[in-house]
Amino acid sequence: MPKSFSTLRINPARLFDSFSALSLIGATGDGGVNRPALSEAHLAARDWFCAEAESAGLDFHVDGAGNHSAVLTCQPSNLQTLLLGSHLDSVSNGGRFDGALGVAVALEVLKTIKENGINLKFDLEAIDFTDEEGTLVGLLGSSALAGRLHPEALKNPRGGRQNLLEGLARAGLSEAGIFTAARPKESLAGYLELHIEQGKRLERMGIDIGIVSAIVGIRSYRLGFIGRADHAGSTLMTDRVDASLGASAFTLAAREIVMGDFPGCVVNVGRMDFAPGAFNIVPARVDLSLEFRSPDEEQFEKMDTALMACAKEQVTRFDLGLEIECFEKHAPNAMTAKVQQVFADSCEDLGLTHVSLASGAIHDGQSFDGVCPIGMIFVPSVDGASHAPREFTKWEDCVNGANVLLQTVLRLGRG
Ligand code: HGY
Ligand code: MN
Ligand code: MN
Predict the structure, then answer these.
(1) What is the pLDDT of residue 307?
(2) How close is the Cα of 245 to the center of ligand 3, in Å?
(3) Mean pLDDT of the region 192-220
């Protein structure tokens, strides 16, 4: 690669100012942000994106899924676009780096390439995908753009259909319009993402950059354990049909199963809703949100079977009813080997240490598996914290990651 390009670096001060301004939007005062997909705070962050694009002289557009894009046309003859992105939506009361850093860095890479007048063999697009976090559906914007979104996924999404419709209305989007975001796969040169690791491995190993080898698959269910409401004082313990016993026993048993039989996998019960939900009424029903993840498809199936069998065992044990709702599933995905190699070459050139890591978090790149080349890099998370206000990445690591992304784009685009 020409010498001049290998010494090109992003503008750290400009990136810092942009990211700092973004971090104030939906800020919760404790270092975190609360920007659930298509909430007012998320839409305000999208206004920030629009202003960033316009002030940088980049073309700006929003597609039918609400994905926000800043585009740098490198050569009028280019037939493909390389997407650089992540997401501005957050989990409720999450951290300010998850997704947001990747979007801010993507914009900074486009600004750097534009101001240096570099002509690449593909156009560049910094993109903020709608609802990566699954507050509504999960990977909504990226799967729509990749042409992977099924209408069924919107009928009973894990965030609730009413929430989805209200969010779409707030953002001026329509259910039918989401599907117009799909792009021909041949128009995409690839998708690259910088993201915080959201784990402790890089920090523990003292390594600068994680090069993502694969992303886990994820499945979500809502399990309804059904008992009978009774007086909490006058009903004998032996006469109760207590839904909370099934939900609690399942939660503990699920953890034992996954830790004992499914190494490398995780399970989470993030929420339990009790009904009627009073001190003095035996719970008639407990709805439990179940999510589990695996890096391996075959193991995934076995874990799914084991966990559903476990739920049915508890129902028999406590003489309860059971309702199972299954939500969108995403298979495990390998990242493109060539892109991983170019990331590694860029790290070497920049004098940064790097290691290959599988991702325990899901990411928009999964939507592009089999559609175009995909690659991700991680920057270290302090104490591995994420999905919490204490989420933090040192600024030097943010700049390192941005320069790796820049150098990788230049290598891929100089061809
Ligand atoms: O849940 C996840 O893995 C990601 O943060 N959306
Ligand atoms: Mn994320
Ligand atoms: Mn997240």
Answers:
(1) 98
(2) 31
(3) 97
Which residues, at least 6 apart from 112, have a Cβ–Cβ distance to it below 8 Å? 8, 9, 10, 11, 406
Task: Please state the domain extents for the chain.
Answer: 3-215+333-414, 217-330
Q: Is 89 in the pocket of ligand 1 (CB under 6 A)?
A: no
Segment 117-126 shows an average pLDDT of 96
Query: Which residue matches tokens 């230049």?
Result: 410
Q: Confidence band (pLDDT; 50, 70, 90) for 75?
A: confident
Residue 109 phi/psi, 5-degree rounding, is -65, -45
Contacts of 415 (CB under 8 A, 6+ apart): 121
390 close to 246: Cβ distance less than 8 angstroms: no
Average pLDDT of the segment spanning 81-87: 98
Per DSSP, the three-state class of 180 is helix
Looking at the CA of 35, which ligand is closest? 3
Q: Which atom of ligand 1 is nearest to the CA of 198?
A: 5
Angstrom distance (rounded) from CA 235 to CA 185: 62
Predicted TM-score (pTM) above 0.90: yes
pLDDT (mean) for 30-54: 98
- Cα 175 to Cα 336: distance, rounded to the nearest angstrom: 32
CB of 361 closer than 6 angstroms to any ligand 1 atom: yes
Measured from the Cα of 386, ligand 1's closest atom is 5
How confident is residue 1, by pLDDT bands cut at 50, 70 and 90?
low
Question: Does the CB atom of residue 364 touch ligand 1 within 6 A?
Answer: no
CATH class of 3-215+333-414: alpha beta
Q: Is 362 in the pocket of ligand 1 (CB under 6 A)?
A: yes
- Pick the ligand that lies closest to the CA of residue 91: 3
Identify the helix (H) or strand (E) that includes residue 268.
strand 266-275
> With a 6 A CB cut-off, is 412 part of the ligand 1 pocket?
no
Query: Can you give the length of the chain in residues?
Result: 415
Ligand 1 atom closest to residue 99's alpha carbon, by position in its atom list: 5
- CATH architecture of the domain covering 217-330: 2-Layer Sandwich (3.30)
* pLDDT tens digits, 296-333: 999 999 999 999 999 999 999 999 999 999 998 899 99
Question: Helix, strand, or coil here: 214?
Answer: strand
Whether residue 132 has its Cβ less than 6 Å from ligand 1? yes
pLDDT value of residue 165: 98
Element (H, E) at 193: strand 188-196
